[in-house]
């Protein structure tokens, strides 16, 4: 076995080169590729958030929470219609005032 840095002969089990001082047993491995998994996780999170937003928006529109263009109008978008009553103005004949007198 020889030193990977200077080529000096090494004994079996030797951890340091006696000539250059380099560590023999340590092997530097390349860093793992973290960008691809991080990008995939970010895209998955974004897709889930968009799905939740669209589901909530569709659910609110369908339940009457947000009025759509077809349901908004006189009813206020709640789906409830109120009856309209008309009263004719009454004159002095036959009407009573606040105290019940004419």
Write up this protein.
- There is one protein chain.
- This protein has 102 residues and is an all-alpha fold.
- The chain has one helix at residues 35-63.
- The longest helix has 29 residues, at 35-63.
- The relative contact order is 0.06.
- The mean pLDDT is 75.
Record keyword descriptors for this entry.
single chain, 102 residues, mainly alpha, 0% strand, rod-shaped
Write the layout of secondary structure elements.
Blueprint: H1 35-63
Give unreliable regions as ranges.
Answer: none
Please write the string of helix (H) and strand (E) elements: H
Give the termini distance in whole angstroms.
125 Å
Q: Please give the share of residues in helix.
A: 25-40%
* Average of pLDDT: 75
Derived from helix and strand composition plus strand pairing, the structural class reads: mainly alpha
Radius of gyration: 42 Å
How many strand elements?
Answer: 0
| Shape call | rod-shaped
Strand content: under 5%
Number of helices: 1
Major sheet summary line: none
Brief description of this entry?
By secondary structure, the protein is mainly alpha-helical.
